[in-house]
User: Fold this.
Amino acid sequence: MYQYIFDNSTTQKINDSASKAKSVLEQFDEVDKKYSFGNTSDIALNLQRNNYVAPSEQEVKTQAENSLKNYKNESINKINNTYEQKSEQIDEKIKQVNNNKESEQNEIIGLYSQVKNNASNDAIKRGLARSSIIVNTLANHDNNMLNELSVLASKTNDQIASLGTQKNTLELEKANALNDFNIEYAVKLQGKIDTINQEIAKAEESAVKYNNEIAEIEAKWARAQEEKNHERQTDLLEFVTKYGSYAIDVAKQSEKYAIAKNYFSNMSKDEALAELNNNSVYKESLGATNYKKLLEEISAR
Assistant:
């Protein structure tokens, strides 16, 4: 089956014509509303409200915590690193004390071993290797060595104990520093929360003020529309009382005739006749007399 296809120019003309015709019919509707009893206009503006939703208490707290996150982490890390370095320094001192103890211990043992060896050799040369003198001498050297080793051990233990006390004190100082920071952080956090809540209160106040203004504008608009409708209906009632209800149809058709005449004046004769003949709305809206009159005027161009 053959399908007729409009070229772009023709299609555009059809679309333009349809758009213009819609505009004319909308004007016809306005005329009908003008001469109708009852409310004929939408009295609600339905303006957009400010639907501000305040964040929850937990959301505010989370926002405040996030804003202080870097500050908190850096401060805690600084405290931990400071005391960790001091603790490592003490551990290094303890290690050094133990190393010194081992070195001195080996030195003492080596020294007394040499002294005992010299004494034994001397006794052998003098033929006293098994005498009580050399035995007692060697025993005295052993006792002296043990005494010195005991003193060294006691001294080392005292040093390590002192360093251990320093380390425990450091842990206490660290705990106090962290506790002090927690108090400082809590104050800062509350300050942030208070600031955010103040901003929320301002936003809520602004939203309420804006919505109240919108409501007032809508109320004024509604009153104005009601007054407009009241005045229009009063005038319409006076018109009907004076000229009869038939006069309303005549007035409507006359105004629509003027609208249609102006509309078709911007068209070519052929376009105007084609639309006027092919759309029954014009005849219904203008009435037979005005429709015929307009048709004749366009045909006589």
Remarks:
- Residues 184 and 277 are 88 Å apart (CA to CA).
- Confidence is low (pLDDT under 50) at residues 1-15.
- DSSP finds seven helices and no strands in the chain.
